[in-house]
Amino acid sequence: MEGLIPLVNRLQDAFAALGQSCLLDLPQIAVVGGQSAGKSSVLENCVSRDFLPRGSGIVTRRPLVLQLVTAKTEYAEFLHCKGRKFTDFDEVRQEIEVETDRITGVNKGISSIPINLRIYSPHVLSLTLIDLPGITKVPVGDQPPDIEVQIRDMIMQFIARENCLILAVTPANTDLANSDALKLAKEVDPQGLRTIGVITKLDLMDEGTDAREILENKLLPLRRGYIGVVNRSQKDIDGKKDIKAALLAERKFFLSHPAYRHMADRMGTPYLQKVLNQVKPNCTVDNGGYRGSLLPWGRIGIPCKNS
Asked: Which UniProt keywords apply (predicted)?
């Protein structure tokens, strides 16, 4: 076996099979953001497929451990549906909804028990991402009044770990200083060593405004900086706009925008994928231990047998 990512995936699967969150300090990338920040679109663009549930209120109600594997053929597998290959990604979405309701019920409750989804595709780079519930402040339906605290605690469970890279998703048409994702990230990573800012909805900013200072890392600096992305609009999603066409439109947006064209090669979903793929652990497994376990943002919390 080459690389640490497959081992991490197996460990995450093993804990999920026991109905528990993985408590080991494994290298992972957690996606954090408020409701309607564009987290789902960022993830779908990374996969080049529509596969995540959408709707109002809290849609992601359990952590989704999304294991992307570069392969010649395209299909998906769930840990809880062993042996079944999903080639229809509408069925993947339906299965996420059914499995979420099975544990949390249908009244918008949340659970820290993850759903493990592995997607094989020639259109992905090998990554493991964890999609966490959107940060909310107002309970809806039968949600408990402390739902904000529950979600915050769940997010902190993941991002407080030293080996967790934080993908803090914030829409450009809101005040960056009030970004819930960046606030939480700063609590556990005050120096910004393991936080990447992702700025969405750049195309929805008021005319005459732009996010140049943010993207140039001048406003609220992070050691790893910010990457801007342009997702599909709700109209595009409802109209089933092809993600590949959307990625071409995203590229055109950055190349043609006067505030961003000078940094176009450091913007967009493909660049974000490349960055995340490069910062993953570059390790091999040897005789049951780890070799070269120093991560770009920390050290693995499991001892190297041969060190």
From this structure: Endocytosis, GTP-binding, Hydrolase, Microtubule, Motor protein, Nucleotide-binding
Confidence of residue 23 (pLDDT cuts 50, 70, 90): very low
pLDDT one-digit tens code per residue, 84-143 = 999 999 999 999 999 999 988 777 788 989 999 999 999 998 888 999 998 887 777 667
Average pLDDT over residues 56-69: 85
**In contact, 129 and 12? CB cutoff 8 Å:** no
CA angle 179, 185, 186 (to 5 degrees): 90
Answer for the pair 150, 178: CB distance below 8 angstroms, yes or no: no
Which pLDDT score, from 0 to 100, does residue 28 have?
A: 83
Residues β-bridged to residue 171: 200
pLDDT for the residue numbered 11: 59
The domains of the chain are located at 24-279
- Asked whether 185 and 297 are in contact (CB, 8 A), the reply is no
Distance of CA 192 to the CA centre of its chain: 17
| 124/118 Cα distance (integer angstroms) | 11
Q: Residue 17 corresponds to which tokens in the numbers above?
A: 């099979």
Cα dihedral 24, 164, 288, 81, rounded to 10, equals: 70
Stretch 212-217: mean pLDDT, rounded?
Answer: 96
CA 259 to chain CA centroid, Å, is 27
Which residues, 6 or more positions from 284, have their beta carbon under 8 angstroms from its beta carbon?
2, 3, 4, 291, 292
Structure tokens at 113: 């028990």
The bridge status of strand 284-286 relative to strand 115-121 is unpaired
